[in-house]
Amino acid sequence: MRIGLLLALLVPVAAQAGTIYFCKAYNGSTFWAQSHCHEHKALIERIVSVPDGMPFQQQVDGAMGNVNAAAARQQTEQDQAQRHQRCAELQRERGQIDGRYSNWQWQPPEVINPDQQRWRGIRAEQQRLGCSTQ
Questions:
Q1: Are 47 and 21 in contact (CB under 8 A)?
Q2: What pLDDT score was predicted for residue 134?
Q3: Using only C-alpha atoms, what is the Rg of the chain?
Q4: How far apart are alpha carbons 114 and 102 in whole angstroms?
Q5: Which bin fits 104, alpha (ψ -120 to 50), beta or left (φ > 0)?
């Protein structure tokens, strides 16, 4: 019985949450509102939960910070996916070049010299991107 009471005292009370809306008017302009966008004759772009009991501008600032952070995370994920894709392309190209020389057959200088230059370029780009070179 005492443990339950102790746990109840240790668990913080959940903060009340409100909702604000990021609206887009029919003319294309955007704005934040505390009431549903439909009441402003606009469309909903985003709904954000915010703490109650703080001024509306602080709620908007917090919501914008969340939106900006989400956009930054999404951009980072896209950048990582593009980097991973480019690394895979470079690895395939490097494998094609290496494959020409793995069977120890003679290659003419007009093939060897451009291959060496491209191989160095691939290696440099792999290092710049932080690709695995295995």
A1: yes
A2: 66
A3: 28
A4: 17
A5: left
Contact 69, 54 (CB under 8 A): no
Read off the pLDDT of residues 30-73 as tens digits, 9 standing for 90 and up. Answer: 999 999 999 999 999 989 888 888 888 888 888 888 778 877 88
Across the beta sheet with 30-33, the strand order is 30-33, 17-25, 42-51
Q: Which residues contact 130 (CB under 8 A, 6 or more apart)?
A: 83
Q: Interhelix angle for 109-129 vs 56-101, to 10°?
A: 150
**Measured distance CA(32)–CA(59) in Å, rounded:** 10
DSSP 33: E
Distance of CA 10 to the CA centre of its chain: 36
Residue 105 has pLDDT above 90, yes or no: no
b/e sequence 71-95, b meaning 16+ C-beta within 10 Å: eeeeeeeeeeeeeeeebeebbeebe
What does the DSSP assignment read for 42-99? EEEEEEEEEETTS-HHHHHHHHHHHHHHHHHHHHHHHHHHHHHHHHHHHHHHHHHHHH
The answer to whether 60 and 20 are in contact (CB under 8 A) is: yes
The one-letter amino acid at 132: S
